[in-house]
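Ticket #4471: structure output looks truncated?

Reporter: J.K.
Steps to reproduce: submitted the chain below (111 residues) through the standard prediction queue, then opened the result file.
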Amino acid sequence: MEAKEFVEKIKAEAVDRASESYARMYSEPVVSAPETDFFQALNEHDKKLFLKILRDVQIDTLAGFLSYLDGDYWLEGQNEDVVIHFESKPTEKLNGDLADMFLESVNNSNT
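Returned output as attached by the reporter:
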């Protein structure tokens, strides 16, 4: 698997499917909870806006995490690069551009 396909699959699971799951969970609640009651009280426009905000937070969070894996940011106390590879391709570094590829994938799916 190449980095671009890896990122596409992460987007499909962590953003697309999760967004669908949130929409279903809030639109068809099994039990009453403050967050589902809040969502149910919104008009249709505000429900769509709320779900878009959730999706944007998912995208921003994942892009930030991938930036750390890419080496764009370092954690306190970190003194070496993170290197990610598949077992079958130990010499092919997967990370380095994951965040950029992810955001490109998100932008392409929004157009």
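Triage note (M.O.): checked the attachment and the full token line is present. The chain has four helices and no strands.
Status: closed, working as intended.
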